[in-house]
Specification:
Keywords: Angiogenesis, Cell adhesion, Cytoplasm, Disulfide bond, Repeat, Secreted, Signal, Sushi, Synapse. It is built from six helices and 32 strands. It is mostly beta strands and about 450 residues long. It is elongated.
């Protein structure tokens, strides 16, 4: 039996306009779709004359990549599959892939939503500035207030995942406070007192970061204290909240009204009342046996810090140089003085000048060791000899050189003890550091050593 097939053909023309609010899709133009339906007896076959079946996709802040069975030029035919992409700074809400179905609708709805990072919190002791607020790629720069330093990331960027890059920095107070002390002070103690009371103002402090959180520590006596003679250091230390510190100092100097310290005369000593050299003290001069005082016996420390009168001196009996022989000259020193006799070819001799300079500095030590210097300079008829300020005759000069075997052609010296014996000779200048130890060890008697130990500091 032959089957009879019926072919029913319908031509349809449809006008379509779509708009889906909030879906992310839009198609606002009308389009006609021509198609025919054929019935084969068991099913219908739809033959499209117009390839647009679903409305065209339009994604706000995004785009689509579509693939149609009819080719790359068709984007909304039946069976077209589209991939939805969002612009940078936006993320997809909904399905990533959709398909144009036989119902003339896409298989799902999607949209692109803007990505935003959370608002940054307040920044203690500083601020930040952002280029795009909380949007993606917005760059925020942190700045600290004056007196603080930034520690950590200086900039942070809003990323596509909605998170800020890096971590929040902090502002740290590294700058110490500024402190200025009062000026140094000098005070004079009243006569008869050793102390005085001193006052001063508090130091001035400034801290840019911590205007009201500064602590001050005083190291030293407080204002209004009694200060003794001398220089006293007063120090202030300022700390801020972060324990940064700064310090300043000044001095308080107290002067006790005193006269210069008196030095005892050579071959003499001084005894003083009170503190020795303060205002009103009286000092009495006394000479050793064999010496006599020339000048006043007492001096008083005056209010203007000077001593009354002039310092006396202790002088030995005058040596008589107007004698006819060297023996008569030497007898005057026997058991009384040691002699250091220096012979030089001229007053310009280098060794001679160096020796006299050294002896001038050692004059006090020579006196304490009871040593007299005799100078023999030059050759006849211009030879010069002297004991301190007293001049020797040319005959005595020649006899001294002969007795002690001293050359007139070169520098040489001889040390003679109290008994006229030659104890040591020198062909070069001798320093006190060499001369004094020799005298102390080999020439001083026991009593002389004791006196020297008691009075050696007087030369200082």
């Amino acid at each position: 039996m032959r089957r009879l097939f019926f072919l029913l053909t319908l031509s349809v023309r449809a006008a379509v306009a779509y708009r889906y609010e909030g879906s992310g899709y839009s198609y606002v133009e009308s389009h006609d779709v021509d198609y025919s339906v054929q019935y084969t007896g068991s099913s219908y076959y739809v033959d499209y004359k117009e390839p647009r079946w679903c409305y065209p996709l339009s994604i706000e802040n995004g785009d689509t990549e579509c693939h149609s069975p009819r080719g790359a030029n068709y984007r909304s035919t039946l069976g077209t599959r589209c991939r939805i992409l969002c612009d940078r700074g936006y993320r997809l809400l909904g399905r990533r892939h959709v398909e144009c179905t036989v119902t003339r609708y896409w298989s799902g709805m999607s949209r692109c939503k803007e990505v935003r990072c959370h608002s940054l919190p307040a920044f203690p002791y500083g601020s930040f500035v952002c280029s795009k607020g909380t949007r993606v790629d917005s760059e925020c720069e942190y700045i600290c207030e004056q007196g603080y330093q930034l520690e950590g990331d200086r900039t942070r960027v809003c990323q596509e995942n909605g998170q800020w890059s890096g971590s929040e920095p902090i502002c740290v107070d590294y700058e110490p406070p500024r402190i200025k002390c009062p000026g140094s002070r000098e005070k004079v103690a009243e006569p008869g007192q050793q102390t005085t009371r001193v006052y001063w103002d508090s130091p001035r402090i400034k801290d840019v970061a911590d205007k009201h959180s500064t602590k001050i520590v005083l190291r030293g006596p407080p204002s209004g204290s009694e200060f003794g003679k001398g220089e006293h250091i007063i120090r202030y230390v300022a700390y801020d909240r972060e324990r940064n510190k700064a310090s300043c100092k000044f001095t308080v100097t107290v002067h006790v009204r005193r006269c210069p310290v008196l030095k005892p005369p050579v071959h003499g000593y001084i005894t003083c009342t009170s503190a020795g050299n303060n205002y009103g003290a009286t000092c009495t001069y006394t000479c050793e046996g064999g010496y006599e005082r020339q000048g006043i016996s007492k001096r008083v420390c005056l209010f203007n810090r000077s001593w009354s009168g002039l310092a006396p001196s202790c002088v030995p009996i005058e040596i008589n140089v107007d004698v006819n022989s060297v023996a008569a000259l030497l007898d005057q020193f026997y058991e009384m003085q040691r002699l250091l006799i220096i012979s030089s070819p001229s007053a310009s001799d280098m060794y001679y000048n160096l020796q006299m300079n050294m002896l001038q500095e050692a004059a006090c030590g020579l006196e304490l060791r009871q040593t007299t210097v005799i100078e023999l300079v030059g050759n006849p008829p211009r030879a010069v000899g002297r004991i301190k300020e007293q001049q020797l005759s040319s005959e005595i000069i020649e006899q001294l050189r002969q007795v002690f075997y001293l050359s007139s052609m070169q520098f040489n010296a001889v040390l003679v003890d109290k008994y006229g014996a030659d104890r040591e000779r020198y062909i070069q200048p001798v320093a006190s550091s060499e001369l004094f130890p020799f005298i102390d060890i080999y020439l001083l008697q026991k009593e002389e050593k004791t006196i020297l130990q008691e009075r050696e500091n007087f030369c200082n």
